[in-house]
Amino acid sequence: MGVMSCFRNNCDSIMCDTWVEPVGYICYECKTEFENKYAGRKFSREKFLKKLQKFMDSPKVYDFDVDTLSECDDNKITAEELWKRY
């Protein structure tokens, strides 16, 4: 795995090893989110690339924001939520 930044808008991941021409690098988390969004659906390769480009242009939304910790349930988070911010 190289130290390559994910090309998705607002994604701060730098551990990307998947390159998709013409979209660019995509991290594991964004790949998984895209796969889940289109799970079980079939499209032509060209249509999937268009959908992937639109997905990569959309801003990544993080489930946890350090600034809103007090708004979380009982101020508790999972380790996964913690690591998403660092």
Can you give me a brief rundown of this structure?
The protein has three helices and two strands. By secondary structure, the protein is mainly alpha-helical. It has a domain at 18-61.
Structure description:
This protein is mainly α. The protein has a domain at 18-61. The protein is 33% helix and 7% strand. It has three helices and two strands. The chain has a two-stranded antiparallel ribbon. A hairpin with a 3-residue loop joins strand 1 and strand 2. The mean pLDDT is 81.
How does the SSE layout of this entry go?
Blueprint lengths: L17 E3 L3 E3 L1 H10 L7 H13 L21 H5 L3
Antiparallel strand pairs: 1-2
Defining traits:
86 residues, two-stranded antiparallel sheet, 2 strands, globular
Strand order of the largest sheet: 1-2
SS class? mainly alpha
Percentage of residues in strands: 5-15%
First CA to last CA: what distance?
A: 19 Å
Oligomer: single chain
Major beta sheet summary: 2 strands, antiparallel
Helix share, percent: 25-40%
| Helix and strand run | EEHHH
Number of helices: 3
Number of strands: 2
Mean of all residue-level pLDDT scores? 81
